[in-house]
């Protein structure tokens, strides 16, 4: 690893799991930044529940299958990918490394997976699409009329291949770590798509509050509704994803509004505390849409086996958010490559050991949850 962050000089041989990368990042980052990346909302019950829910899912491996040639290759939104994984939108990545989103996007391109640019990216979308990878753009609906649609058009003009509207943030959840730290962005870290290169409320310390929450409270609209989804759908040719769906009824309505994919997500435990773990919501949503749109999973994915579990429960693929940021903090682009390489290797291993030669085989696996059969009513037995 050639480009470690200060305090993050960790040999690749020591980074054998994403938990190893997380620990190395925690040692490398200042406490306030570490809390900003790692923390959840409220008492962080949903943050913890995301992992606990994955740990309750067990797989029924098939045997006597030829897995001598095992492939993680798949498609996301009808485009080929090396594995059914995309990097989730994460704000302010220059907090953890000077190159920020540029380094992460280069790593995603090298790994053959999509990179999602956040509305709160510290690098303009045009600079990221210029790298030549498969780039999606995540959109927050903004208070000023027309600004969100302008950003969507800007992303499309820049060459993004998909548009992801986040629908679970009428305002930022109460993230107590940031409140206690009175977290404030350093001057060099700016929202490239919102602040026009100037300082914002996110850069001014606010007593007893997160300055980032104050800033987004002024920028984000809490009036987002299905009418804006219809407006956005009519304004873009790009595939449209809705991120932050946990209720089957909302997923079905998304199909009615022409959405191409829903992302089952609780925002990594950072919005409503005690919201349902995403992997718990996944099977019912996948069943509800019945193939009429794609279903992706976000929140809590920490291994290739987690990816396999999501596929078996009905997902087309997954998003990973914090793990690439940990890799970025530890070793820049090389660190993100390490994270994606670990996921790819673990997924290939899990596929083969489960008797699956392909990602399509994985979607026919059956699961059990907490000792009781789960998802079997909708899983055909593979003969």
UniProtKB/TrEMBL annotation:
Gene3D superfamilies: Aldolase class I (3.20.20.70). GO terms for molecular function: L-lactate dehydrogenase (cytochrome) activity. This is L-lactate dehydrogenase (Cytochrome). CDD domains: alpha_hydroxyacid_oxid_FMN. The keyword rRNA processing does not apply. Residues 10-372 form the FMN hydroxy acid dehydrogenase domain. It holds the Pfam family FMN_dh. Belongs to the FMN-dependent alpha-hydroxy acid dehydrogenase family. Its cofactor is FMN. Its EC number is 1.1.2.3. SUPFAM superfamilies: FMN-linked oxidoreductases (SSF51395). Signal peptide: none annotated. Keywords: Flavoprotein, FMN, Oxidoreductase.
